[in-house]
Amino acid sequence: MLHTLAQELNAVLEDSPAAKLLSPFGKRIYFPKGIIAQGGEAKKYGKVANGTIGMTVCKGTPVILPCIQKEAPGLSPAELVAYAPTAGNLELRTVWREKIIQKNPSLAGIPISLPVVVPGLTAGIAYLCELFLGAGDTLIAGNPSWDNYSLIVETRGEAVFRQFNMFTPGGVDGSFNLEAFKAVLHEEAEKKTVKMLLNFPHNPSGYSPTTNESKAICDEILKVAEAGCTVMVWCDDAYFGLNYEDNIEKQSLFARLAGLHKNILAVKIDGPTKEDYVWGFRSGFVTFGSKGCTEAHYEALTKKFMGAIRCSVSCCSTPSQSILLHAFKAPELEHEKDEMRTMLEHRYRKVRNFVSKKKGHPLLEPLPFNSGYFMALHCTGIDAEELRVKLLHEKGIGTIAIDSNTLRIAFSSIDENLIDEVYEAVYTTADELARSQEKNNL
Question: Looking at residue 121, what DSSP letter applies?
Answer without folding.
Answer: H
